[in-house]
Amino acid sequence: MSDAMHLTKELAAQIDGFSFANGHGFVETRIGFAVELFFLGGSESRTRLILCDMLRQYHALFTDALSHFLKLNTSRLTKITGSDYLDYYENIARKLSSTEPMDAMVFGYPGKKVVDEPTPLSISFKCAGPDPMSLLGRSMICAYFPASFVAERGYGILFDLTKRWASSVELLHGSAGYSLLFEHGVFAGSNTVAETVLPPSNVSLDWIFPIHFISK
Q1: What string of H, E and C letters represents the secondary structure of the chain?
Q2: What tens digit of pLDDT does each residue of 82-110 get?
Q3: Are 140 and 103 in contact (CB under 8 A)?
Q4: Shortest CA distance to 33 belongs to which of 117, 146, 123?
Q5: Which residue, 212, 89, 79, 77, is CA-closest to 158?
Q6: Average pLDDT over the chain, rounded to whole?
Q7: pLDDT at res. 203
């Protein structure tokens, strides 16, 4: 890898500290790394357990930093104590009917205190079967990584993880690399977010980080 591709700890710290805020000072997005995969088979228990194993892999990378998770069909976050939340999701994956979608969200907030803004330590997935409006299904997983983590561990860990995850599901398409980081569950294409993040039409878009797409 060339020096131009090397992410220094100093640059990573700047990236982790950067954010886009709206006119009211609310942080709507940050910058970091993301792995996002879309796949088939989300209604199957086997696929859901594979996604739960991905949560375990993510937990192993950030064990002490993860702070909260969201239980199924609730809107209030629950504090993480140990790894019991992983067992909770696996039990749901085994018991939930294939006709019911399964969601998971895990966060690592600074100081383990919930803040209403994106955090570069988070992972979420949604597993569901096809419906009349989405015949291929609506299943995906999205994991965020701080730039400081990639600077310390190297690009290889992100590359290997992406290949491993992509090969374990019936992949449709996905991406991995530098990315804008939004709150999971927030539609990133909304007008308010677009007005905050995107420059005016007379400004060059050369600053936007590249996203590398993968597909079958």
Answers
A1: CCHHHCCCHHHHHHHHHCEEECCCCCEEEEEEEEEEEEEECCCCHHHHHHHHHHHHHHHHHCCCCCCEEECCCCCCEEECCCCHHHHHHHHHHHHCCCCCCEEEEEECCHHHCCCCCCCCCEEEEEECCCECCECCCCEEEEEEECHHHHHHHCHHHHHHHHHHHHHHCEEEEEEEEEEEECCCCCCCCCHHHHHHHCCCCCCCCCCCCCCEEEEC
A2: 999 999 999 999 999 999 999 999 999 99
A3: no
A4: 146
A5: 212
A6: 84
A7: 39
